[in-house]
Amino acid sequence: MSALSSSGLLEAxxxxxxxxxxxIITALVNQTNYVSQLAREIGxxxxxxxxxxxxxxxxxxxxxxxxxxxxxKAMRYYEVINFDIHLTPAFxxxxxxx
Length: 98
Known about the structure:
Blueprint: H1 6-16, H2 19-28, E1 33-34, H3 35-42, H4 46-58, E2 62-68, E3 74-80, H5 89-96
Antiparallel strand pairs: 1-3, 2-3
Helix pairs in contact: 1-4
């Protein structure tokens, strides 16, 4: 994850401020996964999962790629982008100045 602007920091924190999105990050820490399998693992509907994945992707916390399965189905795979956010008053001040 590149250097954050103040709006980028708010977007990342907002994306992480949801229990479903934290579950998604946790599920993707050690593996890439496709939407249907991830929805089954987490126990939420595919449309709800896609909404949460979009929020995480927009915040730069996950990325996706489209692959074709052996039978020709398009499958979207997601993985976590390595990020490290240390919140301190000095960091917040520094980000605010950008």
